[in-house]
Design goal:
This protein is of the alpha+beta class. 25% of the residues lie in helices and 23% in strands. The strands form six sheets. Strands 1, 13, 14, 15, 16, 19, 20, 21 and 22 form a nine-stranded mixed β-sheet that branches. Strand 8 and strand 9 form a beta hairpin. Helix 7 runs antiparallel to helix 10 and helix 14 runs antiparallel to helix 15.
Length: 545
């Protein structure tokens, strides 16, 4: 079950140049070099078809509530910023971003060569309107929390200022949200999702615009935006919805669709092992962990020594090798290994060592009986429930963990439930002993909402870790600093502290597998992506036949 961070959790790296300003790069991203030869030979025209599981909801970046819509929106709308191949923020609809001396005001200077899909100019009024929607009392989605306390002011037709209450190095991440056209939404906020311009007539500043949506919404067809700069080679992009990822994979394997993406099961990977399909393995900014019930009134996980012992009992390399077929990276700190602030030193502090785990459990008073399978303390057996989504790879990971923990005398009952049920009944209600979930960290290492003591009521602060002043301080320092070295130092220390505290059992960073027909050329992506960012360089793509 993958849960994404709201607002700044979809963060871009708020790293500024020494002059405290950010300007449009003079050269294309390094990743684009991969496709430079293909672009030179590219021909215009053709249709690209993406197979997806499910159907899309609102085609509006402020109201999209599921992944299919978010990914389609990425082709229609653009934000003020985007993530570069080095995880640093780059301007997109912005041409330059300046930071004030007190690090509180970001002045965004806008590009003046951009038009909406209907030919009208993009201006600061569109930016002001977009963020006014996000700050409207009638806007109740999780993203609203990011904009509380932020003052947004139009300074000129090509300039908007954002003023914060306190410095936030990851703020530029928030400017990645798609900008919507003010002139097409004259009503109140409540009317925006149901507007035809959030559906069959959706237009933005991106390379494509909606051409049609089928009656059952299973097929969304996009056509080239005639005013897009740069213009795409492909005429049309079709998103075809299927009832399951298995069916979507079968469509690509059978030549009915050109591409499909996800964390692919072994059976799905075998279906796509064809000479006419290329599978790209991309790191994902997300991480999978087991969250624990830390309530001190409950007997199992209140002692951090016990939590560290369980972490040492887990063979993460085996999980990646045997369950994910190599499609992931072992992770034993709070940050995924692809993150620029990841600390390898912290990750090596408590390596896989079942013998050490057993000694630590003995010392904590959880001992093996003369006869019996599981450890006990005070007449209570160490047998707990692990709840997980009944889907690949979570069911397989849960069963592997069951075997690994049994080897050190800890009993695990695996409870497999529908993904939505996992969120509403267990994670959301904080009603579990152990829960397996995947969190979308985003490109910025700011995990304030996950671990800070002031955020214990936040929906994704599952650990409910008791207040630890040094952890809070590192989270605050990492967020406030602008200098990359200062942030790296704060997050390295944070990872050390969280390895000691062990509020969760960090397991691995999964990879996103993207399978594309070889008839589609020019396909490339950044080394680490959010799923929707696989289309970041779609204007380089072309259909060869």
């Amino acid at each position: 079950m993958r849960l994404r961070q709201a607002g700044h959790w979809l963060a871009l790296l708020g790293l500024l140049a020494s002059a405290c300003q950010l300007s449009t790069p003079a050269v294309a991203p390094t990743a684009a070099d991969v496709a430079s030869g293909a672009r030179a030979a590219a021909t215009n025209g053709g249709t690209f078809t993406e197979a997806v599981a499910g159907i899309a909801g609102y085609l509006n970046p402020l109201f999209a509530d599921e992944d299919d819509a978010r990914e389609i929106d990425g082709l229609i709308y653009q934000g003020l910023t985007q993530v570069g191949p080095d995880q640093q923020v780059q301007p997109l609809l912005a041409r330059e971003i300046r930071l004030s001396g007190d690090r509180l005001t970001y002045s965004v200077l806008l590009r003046t060569d951009v038009k909406w899909g209907d030919g009208l100019p993009f201006t600061a009024e569109d930016v002001r309107f977009t963020f006014a929607v996000l700050q409207d009392p009638g806007y109740t989605l999780p993203a609203a929390a990011t904009w509380k306390g932020v003052t947004v002011k139009k300074m000129a037709d090509d300039r908007v200022d954002f003023t914060l209450r306190s410095p936030s190095a990851g703020f530029l991440n928030s400017l990645r949200v798609g900008i919507i056209p003010q002139h097409l939404f004259p009503g109140d906020v409540a009317s925006i999702p149901s507007s035809p311009y959030s559906g069959a007539k959706a237009i933005g500043t991106g390379p494509f615009m909606v051409d049609s949506i089928s009656g059952d919404r299973s097929v969304v067809t996009l056509r080239r935006n005639p005013f897009a700069v740069p213009a795409p080679h492909i005429d049309r992009v079709v998103f075809k919805g299927y009832s399951s990822l298995d069916e979507a994979v079968a469509a690509v394997a059978g030549g009915v669709a050109d591409a499909v993406g996800g964390v692919l099961s072994p059976a799905q990977a075998r279906m796509l092992a064809r000479p006419d399909v290329a599978v790209r393995d991309l790191r994902s900014f997300s991480f999978t962990s087991v969250f624990l019930d830390l309530d001190p009134k409950h007997p199992y996980f209140a002692n951090p020594s016990v939590r560290r012992a369980l972490s040492q009992a887990i063979d993460r390399q085996a999980l990646v090798r045997d369950v994910l077929r190599g499609g992931g990276d072992p992770q034993s700190t709070s940050l995924p290994p692809s993150d620029w602030a990841y600390s390898a030193a912290a990750g090596q502090r408590f390596p896989y060592d079942p013998s050490a785990a057993q000694r630590a459990l003995d010392e904590a008073g959880w001992t093996m009986p003369v006869q019996g399978l599981y450890r006990s303390q005070g007449g209570v057996d160490f047998v707990v429930e692990l709840v997980a989504a009944d889907a690949y790879p979570y069911r397989d990971v849960a069963r592997a963990l069951q075997g690994q923990l049994a080897a050190v005398g800890v009993g695990v009952r695996v409870n497999l439930v529908p993904a939505g049920f996992l969120v509403t009944k267990y994670l959301g209600a904080r009603s579990y002993q152990m829960a397996l979930a995947n969190l979308d960290n985003g490109p910025d290492p700011d995990q304030f909402s996950f671990w800070h003591s002031s955020e214990r009521v936040y929906p994704l602060n599952f650990s409910e870790l008791p207040r630890q002043s040094f952890i809070d301080k590192d989270l605050e320092d990492g967020r406030a600093a602008v200098d990359l070295k200062q942030r790296s130092a704060a997050y390295a220390e944070l990872q050390d502290l969280l390895v000691d505290a062990a509020p969760a059992l960090f397991l691995y960073e999964p990879h996103y597998q993207y399978a594309v027909s070889r008839r589609v050329g020019g396909v490339h992506a950044n080394p680490v992506i959010d799923a929707a960012d696989r289309f970041q360089y779609v204007t380089d793509w072309f259909v060869a036949g």
